[in-house]
Design brief:
Blueprint (H helix, E strand, L loop, with lengths): L28 E5 H17 L3 E5 L6 H9 L5 E4 L2 H9 L4 E7 L3 H10 L4 E6 L2 H13 L4 E6 L12 H12 L4 E7 L11 H24 L6 E4 L5 H5 L6 E2 L29 E12 L2 E4 L14 E2 L6 E5 L4 E4 L10 E5 L3 H5 L4 E6 L2 E7 L8
Parallel strand pairs: 1-16, 2-3, 2-9, 3-4, 4-5, 5-6, 6-7, 7-8, 8-9
Antiparallel strand pairs: 1-10, 10-11, 10-15, 11-14, 12-15, 13-14, 16-17
Length: about 375
Amino acid sequence: MVYETRRYEVGLTIPAEVGMSLDDVHTPALIIDLDAFENNVRQMGAFARKNGIRHRAHAKTHKSVDIARIQMELGGAVGICCQKVSEAEVMINGGINDVLVSNQIVDPRKIERLARLANKARLQVCVDDGDNVAELSKAAVKHQTELACLVEIDCGSGRCGVQSGFQVVELAERINSAPGLVFKGLQAYQGAAQHIRNFDERGTAVKAAIRQVSDTIQLLNASGLLCDIVSGAGTGSYYFEAGSGVYNELQCGSYVFMDADYQRVQDAEGDCIHEFENSLFLLTAVMSKTRRDKAICDAGLKVQSVDSGLPYIFNRDDIEYIKCSDEHGEIADPHNHLKLNDRLLLVPGHCDPTCNIHDWYVGIRHNRVECLWPVSARGMAY
């Protein structure tokens, strides 16, 4: 694909300009390898089509209108997921017309904003509490719109979601009887299973969730409630849900970038997940080399999240990123290979919170800057 060159305000601080070499990009910066990125988008789209299942890409990973559009246009995603109303506002105002807020929205002021958004795009929201139903209904009626609701099941994460199928039926009935609301199905995301390293153990956890969802659907059917949507699954488990005959929508997000932690997740042969490529990198430069066996780079805690572990250095086995502080990263250089201004590509430990730290993605193809995309919903957590 060829991407439209964005125009920038005079004086706006950006890390790169279209046409420049990767070596000239200001560091630290978030880099997207466009070839690998597009391959990942196509790969997930092809998988969804082959398995007759929808893909609703999770935008909390990238928080970018540009990337969301590409996931829909190139990958065939039916729409996106967001976690917060502010994320959804940015995406919908940017032209994304089908959004699931895969979270509970209970603050009355946020519910007002949600209801207004439902007049601009197809909008769905998750519910796990009966008291929330009345507030959502009130706002939908006020703004003369309809809010589609998915009842969320706690299928193993121990986080949000109701505990039993009977609670789901009760909530679904309350939703359908509330003006301005309609019950559309289930949110059943087994988030705790995504990073279980062992394939069989991960499969056991996800299959338990699948059984729970299947039993719940039977209870809904017995009560005369139609379950149009069964949505969930992530980058670490999507093949289990897709083959279940129960789920009809995937919510994978990190597949588009692949971070260091997801690459530790094993497939059935015990190898690391290999169907998706690293496409997101943190470009950094060596800023100090006062010791033979160690270098200091300019990528520290302020430009990456290390909650899932430190980054690794892409395509280098002679050096290792070993420690970080606010503004600095320490690199073990036992053979004294590094020198000042050497450029390195780091694969972040956890892509989602790392992206939320940055203003821009720098799209690279053949070592040249092809595009810059703003992290449109950066900081949109309310």
